[in-house]
Amino acid sequence: MPAFTLTEFRQVVEKCFQGEAGPLDGAALDASFSDLGFDSLMVYEITVRIQDEYPVEITDDELDELRTPGAFIAFVDARLSVSG
C-alpha cells in the first residue's frame, strides 16, 4: 500500500469539508488540530472518512492521542504499512 502522507490527508480533509483543507501545509504538521481551527467533531469526521477509504481502524482512545496532523498522518501510515 502506498504511503499515507500530507497529500492524502489533505485530500481526505477536502472531501470532508467541500474542498476546504484550511492551513494544511508542512508547517501545520506539528500544530494542534485546535490551533488549526479543527474541533473534535471535524477530526472525528476525518477519521471516519479515512477508515472508510483505507484499511485502517482507529479506536477512540488512539484518536484522543493524535493531537496534530503530523501524529495522525504518521499513525495512519504506520498502520497501513503493517496491513499492506
Specify the CATH class: Mainly Alpha
**What count of structural domains?**
1
Question: What is the percent of helical residues?
Answer: 40-55%
Compute the number of strand runs: 0
Order of helices and strands: HHHH
How many strands, which pairing sense, and closed or not: the largest β-sheet? none
Question: In CATH, what is the homologous superfamily?
Answer: ACP-like
Oligomer: single chain
Principal-axes geometry comes out as globular
Q: Count of DSSP helices? A: 4
Pfam family, one: PP-binding
Keywords: Phosphopantetheine, Phosphoprotein
Domain Carrier: 3-80
InterPro entries: ACP-like_sf, PKS_PP-bd, PP-bd_ACP
List keywords for this structure.
mainly alpha, ACP-like_sf, Non-ribosomal Peptide Synthetase Peptidyl Carrier Protein, Chain A, single chain, Acyl carrier protein, PKS_PP-bd, 84 residues, PP-bd_ACP
Describe the structure.
The protein is an all-alpha fold. The chain has one domain: Non-ribosomal Peptide Synthetase Peptidyl Carrier Protein, Chain A (Orthogonal Bundle), CATH 1.10.1200.10. The chain is built from four helices and no strands. It is globular and about 30 Å long. Keywords: Phosphopantetheine, Phosphoprotein. This is Acyl carrier protein. InterPro entries: ACP-like_sf, PKS_PP-bd, PP-bd_ACP. It holds the Pfam family PP-binding.
